[in-house]
Amino acid sequence: MIDISALFKISYGMYIVTSGNREQNNGFISNSVFQVTASPIQFAVCCNKDNYTSEFISTFKSFSISVLKQDASADIIGLFGYMSGRYKNKLLDCKVEYSETNVPMVLSDSLAILECKLIRTVDVGSHLMFVGEVINSKLLDDTEPLTYAYYRNVKKGKAPKNAPTFVDEKKLNENIRDKTMSDVYKCPVCGYEHNVAEGDPKSGIDPNTPWNDVSEEYTCPLCGAGKEDFYKL
Amino acid sequence: MIDISALFKISYGMYIVTSGNREQNNGFISNSVFQVTASPIQFAVCCNKDNYTSEFISTFKSFSISVLKQDASADIIGLFGYMSGRYKNKLLDCKVEYSETNVPMVLSDSLAILECKLIRTVDVGSHLMFVGEVINSKLLDDTEPLTYAYYRNVKKGKAPKNAPTFVDEKKLNENIRDKTMSDVYKCPVCGYEHNVAEGDPKSGIDPNTPWNDVSEEYTCPLCGAGKEDFYKL
Q1: In terms of CB atoms within 10 Å, which end of chain A has fewer, N or C?
Q2: How far is the first Cα of chain B from the last one, in angstroms, to the nearest whole number?
Q3: Between chains, do B42 and A124 touch, taking CB under 8 Å as contact?
Q4: What whole-number distance in Å separates Cα of residue B162 and Cα of residue B115?
Q5: Which fold has domain B4-153?
Q6: Hey, are the CB atoms on B111 and A1 less than 8 Å from each other?
Q7: By the CB < 8 Å criterion, does A167 face chain B?
Q8: Chain A 76-115, residues with CB within 8 Å of chain B CB atoms
Q9: This model's pTM is above 0.80
Q10: Is A30 helix (H, G, I), strand (E, B) or coil?
Q11: Mean pLDDT of A213-232
């Protein structure tokens, strides 16, 4: 029997992983970044095959890892964690540094950066595991890194849909949902709660618009998940 | 340029990874344990090729992960992290549970256990990366897990020699050592400090025995590293 709560006890940091060059690039939030050998210093990063950054790493044969600060803003986590680079240039407004491989290394909200040359790619099913040798690294700020535990417990964040640690809360909550609770619909990807009484005026949804009358095209204002993914609290 | 201090900002947990069956088994302390896919739930573990447990995982095709509690004892970390199972049955005095694959899952000082069936082995140089599917998991105690940051900062622990995150402090300190400091010799593996004035009576070394007179067979009382590895503080 698999008890999902046991998996919550695994510790991770939170990182922005990017790939590409000065012209074309993308990045995403990853919590599965880890050192695999000490000599040479090699790191592995897991990336969903559907993730746009996977294509960049496979093409450009390099990637960078930015270690997020504990006080990293929700904006940068929203930008890199919940939006697709297919529709938005995520690195446009970030402070970025380039080095040997021309991979953009994000400095914004980060306390350390690592530049890696791709050594091998391992297919592990839904994800690709990219193993890279660290060719450059720099400490930017000697403060505490953001950990996934801190993000979950203090910042109340959730794993994005493509993360190896994603938990389908929609399924998880299906049987325990109290149908008599207030008229609130929750995004299972990022945790955003849509309150019918308040509506979502920024997305053109007036207060008190019944959920059934909200367009099927409606997407979560925080992470872009579709209306069909929301569940009633 | 590689700045090692940047690598210290990567977050890890601390685990006992075991393999084998009821008769033959071994385990070691690992900090490189991480989820690689969510569906199915797969975990990867890096293990030095010289590590005795590597042989067991390759032979028995299964392994277990015990998530250490934040207050795990120095004894269990010393036992699984700094001693070789070639000379000692590490699991003899531990509380252990068996399940489907008969791999021993250590319950002592642990708050969660995962049982994994080996799916693939990836050679990453000095280490093997074992990817396994979680077939059973259990939460034992809903408290804080031990993180590597906590182990380093609060418990003042070091990475064992075979860990992917091992830093050769002997080399690191070679140039900055102050030769005028007290007569103390430090073990680069576990951080134990041998003070000449105090000696190491338990190992038969009287107080004030000059370091040169200490037998070349002397090994660190904590981790078993050889005398030749010690360096002068």
Answers
A1: N
A2: 27
A3: yes
A4: 23
A5: Pnp Oxidase; Chain A (2.30.110)
A6: no
A7: yes
A8: 111-114
A9: no
A10: strand
A11: 84
